[in-house]
Amino acid sequence: MSCQTLPQLWLLSDARNDTVLERALSELPRGSGFVFRHHHLMDEAWVKRLKELLEIAERKEFSTLVPAGRVKCAQMHLNGVQGCIAGIYGPPDTPQAGNLPLFATAHDVTEIVAANLAGAKAVFLSPVFPSCSHPGAPSLGPERFRELAAKAEMPVIALGGMTAEKARALCWPRWAAIGGLSPIT
Q1: Domains (ranges, CATH) in the chain?
Q2: pTM for this structure?
Q3: Which residue in 64, 78, 100, 125 has the most C-beta neighbors within 10 A?
């Protein structure tokens, strides 16, 4: 990461917010985090889109994460720009990729414990609230979210149905969103 502090605000990408990502990234505060997922794209298109968005991310000194399964692809095609990749995003059992830290995903106590054992730099704990990403799936709610977060040995980033209003209501310093930071049309 370009700065030593873990960002408080994170934008995640996917097919739903692709058309508004340039604007969304430009509007985020300097030093935010960006998780470039785009699972819907094949490797060549994925790398092309990542390169386009990294220009904005680098100018704003964002910490950028890529999914564990795409780290080698990113490193092979970024030709020296790979220093802008701050870590990998994935489940706690993700194998380490060189010296890139793991930013784990977790949904329950088992995954929190696994993230602790894996030495994850941070954990994205979700879904805090009902989310468009998983319609109808049960959410943690504020109380269960706090119970699980207390078991984490690393910073916890709230994810799932998050917006600025919900983050304030939750009183949680670090949060992430897809639609809550990039209105999906």
Answers
A1: 9-177 (3.20.20.70)
A2: 0.90
A3: 125
